[in-house]
Amino acid sequence: xxITKEDIDAxxxxxxxxxxxxxxxxxxxxxxNDYRKKANIPGFRKxxxxxxxxxxxxxxxxxxxxVNKLLQESLNKFLVEEKxxxxxxxxxxxxxxxxxxxxxFSFEFELGLAPEFEVNLKPKKAITxxxxxxxxxxxxxxxxxxxxxxxxxxxxxxxxxNSNITGTFTNEEKDIEKKSxxxxxxxxxxxxxxxxLGSKVGDxxxxxxxxxxxxxxxxMNVLGLSHDDAHAFEAPLTLKIEEISRTELAxxxxxxxxxxxxxxxxxxxxxxxxxxxxxxxxQFASQADQQLLNAVTESLIENTKFDLPAEFLKKWLAVSGExxxxxxxxGEEYERSEKGLRYQLIEGKLMTDNNxxxxxxxxxxxxxxxxxxxxxQFGDSNIEDKQLEDIxxxxxxxxxxxxxxxxxxxNEKLLAxxxxxxxxxxxxxxxxxxxxxxxK
Length: 440
Prior knowledge:
Radius of gyration: 35 Å
Distance between the termini: 62 Å
Shape: elongated
Helix content: 40-55%
Largest sheet: 5 strands, antiparallel
Number of helices: 14
Structural class: alpha+beta
Oligomer: single chain
Number of strands: 11
C-alpha cells in the first residue's frame, strides 16, 4: 500500500491511497474460511461447502468490505502520524472509471486544512467590562416588592386607588375567559380609571384592550396570550370583578429579616439594604461576565484574520448532515456557521497555547464545588466526603451533564484568561443602564 499527499494550497490537500491485492487478500481469505465453516447451503454438509462456491457467492462483497476497512484505518493513521489538522472530514473524490472488478485500487480524498494564525489579544479599541451596581432606586424597589410579597391582604368593599382587583376577563369572539389579578395602578388613562374606581364585587365592566394597561405586555398575563398575540390583540373585554383588596405592607423588622435570611443574620434595616445590594450585584456579576465573554468573542473573530478552505467546507456541509444539501443550501449554511467555526479555531488555539484545557481532574473538582453549592441551598453544608464522591460520580456518569459542566468550566477558564490578557476598560453602570447599552 502506498499513501501520498499533494498540497493544492495552504488550506487544501489531496491524499492518494493505492491498495493492491497483497494488502487485503489474507483478510479476505480468512473471512471466507469463516463463511465456509458456517455456511448453510442446500446439498452440502455444514463446513464442507466448496471454497469456489463460497468465493462466487461472497467473495466480492467480502473483498469490498475489507478494502473499505483497510482504507479507513490507513487514512486515519496517516492523518494522525502526519499531524494533519483537518476541518470536517476527508471527502472521497469519485472516479468515473472506478471498478470493483479489479484487484488493485486507487482512492483519493480531499482535505480541508486548518489555517495557521496568531490570535490578536490586543485590539485597538479596548473592550468594555461592565461592573453593574445596585443603586438606591433598585434596592428600594426591591424592598417595596418584598414588603408587598410578605404583606397582608385587607379586603375592600369597593375599588380604591390602592386596590388589587381579581376578576374574569371574557370575549366570546376571541375565546377569552381568564381569571387574573392586577393592581389598579397598572390601569392606564382617566376614562379607564373612572370605570374602576368605586366598583364593587359582582360588578361587570366593559373595557377596551387597547391602552388598558400602562405596559402592553400585561395583556400576556391577564389574558393568557403569547407575546406576539398580545401585541396584535385589540378587542372589547368584559371584566367581572370577584375580589377587591389592598396590601398592607410588611414591616421592616426582625421578624421579616429572620424569615428572609435566617435567625439573627440580619439585625438592622441598614444591614438588610446592604445584603440586598450585595446579593443583587453577585447576580449581576455573572450577567456582566457573560456579556464580556460575548464581546471578547466578537472582537477575536473580527481582529484575528485568517482564511478558511471555504469551498471544501461547503462541499463537506452538503454531505455531512442527516439530509444531503444542494450547493445553494450548503452555501447558505456555511455563511451561517462561518463565525462559529472561526471562533472554535481561535478558542482551540488559545486553550492549547495557554494550557487552558479541561482535564478530568479539573472537571471532578469543579463538579464537587457545584454539588456542594447545590446541597448548601437545601441547608446541607456538611456533606460527608463519601456521599460527595458518590454524587459526583453519578453526575459525571451522565454525558449531558459532563458536557454542560465542561462547557461552564471551559468558559470560566477562558474568562479568567481574558480578564488577565485582553485590553479592557471597566465601566460602572446601574442595571438599567447596562440593559440600555447592551441590549439596545
